[in-house]
Amino acid sequence: MAYAAFYFPRSAFSAAKVGILDEGFLSRQTLGVLDSIYLAAYAVGQFIWGAVAERFGTRIVVAGGMVMAGVAALFMGIAPAVWLFVPLMIVQGLAQSTGWSGLCKNIASFFTVRKRGRAMGLFSTSYAFGGLVATPFTGWIAYSIFDSWRWAFFAGTATIALALVLFAVFQRNNPQEVGLPGIDEDDSALDGDYVRSHTRAPVPVVKVKGDRFSPRDLLAAAKHDAMVLKLGIVYFLLKPARYAILLWGPVLVLDALPHLDSITAVMVPVAFGITGLIAPIVVGWTSDTLFNARRVPPSVLCLGLLVIALALWQPVTATGSLPLFIGLLSFVGLTVYGADAMISGVAAVDFGTSRYAAGATGFINGCGSLGAILGGLLPGFFPGVVIFYVFAAAALAAALILIPSWNKRPSAA
After folding, report:
1. What is the model's pTM?
2. How many Cα atoms within 13 Å fall on the side-chain side of residue 301?
3. Which of 75, 83, 97, 181 registers the highest number of CB atoms within 10 A of its CB?
4. How many CB atoms sit inside 10 A of residue 397's CB?
5. CA 156 centroid distance within chain
């Protein structure tokens, strides 16, 4: 719920683009540059916040990010000048980057390797659900109720504010905070009788020497297992495709089918999110059961299918058929979210282990966010046909990089 809520202030900008372009408030190229600024800040934050969450716990980092995201969206809704969007996009990017690595650390602290695929699969539906609902919801508020793109930002702020309250009440960093054994303890202890205590004082899964943050913490996970670096490179190649649709979905729809109206263009990318909601659960279960907790095989299979899906963009859009276009978006969503959930979530946590889970997910997602800059920037300057052929080539390269590691497992497994 917490991570899904991050998408509402984030996706408000995607929904607002249709109205911004129609009003002439900003040019398409300027919107692309703003997306790249946001994603650059997001990438920097991914590298930093994952390591910070290892030191100070996820509760503080994630809650602080939710506050920042809501405030930034609020001020974007009332900003009277273009230049104010730049610092606000930087703040939004830094705020958004607190969520994934910190909350993945939460999952790693509560679930062992053998069950983590299913747990992370369910958890990964959070960003699929957020991407599915946030843009249509904020767009509906903006265009159907208030007839102003600014209300997309106000709706995003209200949503994450509600989620923040629930997060503060219910979230805990690890089992020890409520008197339960940590997963790194003796396996037999996990089946023993424990008396739940009422303490909520943070007890880290792995004790550290102190609270002083060191720049070396940023690379600790990559040094722990070289597979973390490989996954970072693969995620760099994968993420542009998802973010192009996430950030530019309504505009790309209008590029392909210019006869549609604004509200329809906002709603069509829902097909991308619906299959994206299903994919992490299916792929997570498959990796635990059919592939015996191996994360690379389902990742490679999803990447291969994604190459086919992206290569079909031009032939399908040339038909001008809305049903075919919706079917293509569904296929892209199924494959890209399946690979994304494995690489950025389950595999990142597994190869980082519970000790470096936040650092590994932060590092891998930081690399992915550097690639996502292209997903935000390129649609502002090139038509969809060109960029999706480029993304298909990148997905193919990612699959080829992973194939030699088909049977690779974490050293701790």
Report:
1. 0.68
2. 14
3. 97
4. 16
5. 17
